[in-house]
Amino acid sequence: MPGRLHTGVKICGLTEEAGFDACVEHGADWIGFVFFDRSPRCVTPQQAASLASRGVGQAKTVGLFVHPRDEDIARVLEHAALDVLQIYASEERAQQVAQAFGVSVWLSFPVAGAADLPASCPVQKMLIEPRPPKEATRPGGNAQKLDWSMLAGWKPLFPWMLAGGLRVDNVAEAIRITGAPDVDVSSGVESAPGIKDPALIAQFVRNARQADRN
């Protein structure tokens, strides 16, 4: 992967100070907050704003929303000045959100096979992850691992990020197989649902960056 500085790392689902501080200390590029009440990582806009204030200018903040109404997003932005809105919605809805709020929008795009991979990007970035099982209560954050082989040789002309089942012990392999420019982790760096492990955060970032040099 010549020419790129390093793999971008997003740590998602921050709920507490120790985890947030570890993200900043170890150089995560993006720190994510979940605004979806079915998730064990859900935070209030006030909690997100308080955490974000601990690392102003150190990493970009991402808010995750599931089929949000404009008022849902506006209520969060009243308290937390997010850099990115990551949403589960249709491509048309993602474009509407981008136009309404003038903030970078990422579209979460679950796939089951290579035929599902997007041919274009209607917003600033596509987040490629596994399609959730039928019994799942959440569209993402289920610790499912994507079949990375479906991405081998896939070279889209738009920004994208790999998510789903990434951990300290497999992130380097995932980057090597898929060529992912950015990676996203949540449960893979947790000691309990919603509680991040600072040591795992440090190792995950280190292993993702080491993959660039290999």
UniProtKB/TrEMBL annotation:
<dbReference type="InterPro" id="IPR044643">
    <property type="entry name" value="TrpF_fam"/>
</dbReference>
<feature type="domain" description="N-(5'phosphoribosyl) anthranilate isomerase (PRAI)">
    <location>
        <begin position="9"/>
        <end position="206"/>
    </location>
</feature>
<protein>
    <recommendedName>
        <fullName>N-(5'-phosphoribosyl)anthranilate isomerase</fullName>
        <ecNumber>5.3.1.24</ecNumber>
    </recommendedName>
</protein>
<keyword id="KW-0413">Isomerase</keyword>
<comment type="pathway">
    <text>Amino-acid biosynthesis; L-tryptophan biosynthesis; L-tryptophan from chorismate: step 3/5.</text>
</comment>
<dbReference type="InterPro" id="IPR011060">
    <property type="entry name" value="RibuloseP-bd_barrel"/>
</dbReference>
<dbReference type="GO" id="GO:0000162">
    <property type="term" value="P:L-tryptophan biosynthetic process"/>
</dbReference>
<comment type="similarity">
    <text>Belongs to the TrpF family.</text>
</comment>
<dbReference type="Pfam" id="PF00697">
    <property type="entry name" value="PRAI"/>
</dbReference>
<dbReference type="GO" id="GO:0004640">
    <property type="term" value="F:phosphoribosylanthranilate isomerase activity"/>
</dbReference>
<keyword id="KW-0057">Aromatic amino acid biosynthesis</keyword>
<keyword id="KW-0028">Amino-acid biosynthesis</keyword>
<dbReference type="InterPro" id="IPR013785">
    <property type="entry name" value="Aldolase_TIM"/>
</dbReference>
<dbReference type="InterPro" id="IPR001240">
    <property type="entry name" value="PRAI_dom"/>
</dbReference>
<keyword id="KW-0822">Tryptophan biosynthesis</keyword>
